[in-house]
Amino acid sequence: MTMTPEQSSRARELAHRLRSVRNRIAAATAPDGQNEPHLIVVTKYFPASDVRILRDLGVRDVGENKDQEAAAKAAELADPELNWHFIGQLQSNKAKSVVRYAASVHSVDRLSLVSALGKAMGAEQRRRADGGVPQRPDLSCFIQVDLRPGPAREADPGRGGAAPEDVAGLADAVAGTTGLRLAGLMAVAPLGEDPDAAFGRLNSLSLQLQQNHPQARSISAGMSGDLEAALANGATHLRIGSDVLGARPPVR
Ligand SMILES: *Cc1c(COP(=O)(O)O)cnc(C)c1O
């Protein structure tokens, strides 16, 4: 496909930004065989044309936080090589839509959502069977943890994320639901706190979780501003938006 001058300048910009993020990741990853983390490029608010450019630059994992926007981009690109990660707060009534395109959900934070995702996966596999389409893999689920101290959580609920004491029950529910695979934990570093301390707590929670669910080793943590702190605390999946795509356009 030939590109317009605007498209090729955007392609050069994205290539440059992606290279510097990859360099930061390489510099922050221990040389002694620590597994290379998965880079999820968060493309929210940016057009499908940017996702296509990123795909051509070798990106396979993309993150989105709104079902409507994600569903539209996934349908427009219809690229089986892309893995779509749903990273935003998710209403249960969107579960049916999300399981059509998403490989994973990073924001599982309540039992009602676990059961909605399980039901949606069952319906999706039946829909595929009826249409003669191959089954999809199980949905990878990350339990999102709210790392703020208890009083801050209680003063300002509804930000997304389960209390640390609720993780074990949620993990058992995911692991016990057909169609769902328990991947591990996800968190966003709380505002105003050293991300290193917050991600340290996430790492401890992950080790606790692995005592009952040894396969649930993934840790989704680290954004543009704190990827180094996340990697120092065992992150396996980074979610990087603005440092690859640029400043987000004003919300429409
Ligand atoms: C937007 C978003 C990101 C990416 O943040 P940047 O600071 O742009 O890298 C990561 N995780 C979640 C949950 C997000 O909503």
CATH superfamily: Alanine racemase
How would a textbook summarize the main sheet?
8 strands, parallel
CATH fold name: TIM Barrel
CATH architectural arrangement: Alpha-Beta Barrel
Question: Count the strands?
Answer: 8
Overall body shape = globular
Average pLDDT over all residues:
95
Bound molecules: pyridoxal-5'-phosphate
Q: Please report the first level of CATH classification, the CATH class.
A: Alpha Beta
Largest sheet, spatial ordering of strands: 7-6-5-4-3-2-1-8
Low-confidence parts: none
Distance between the termini: 29 Å
| Structural class based on helices, strands and sheet pairing | alpha/beta
Count of helical regions:
10
Keywords: Pyridoxal phosphate
Organism: Arthrobacter zhangbolii
Function: Pyridoxal 5'-phosphate (PLP)-binding protein, which is involved in PLP homeostasis.
Cofactor: pyridoxal 5'-phosphate
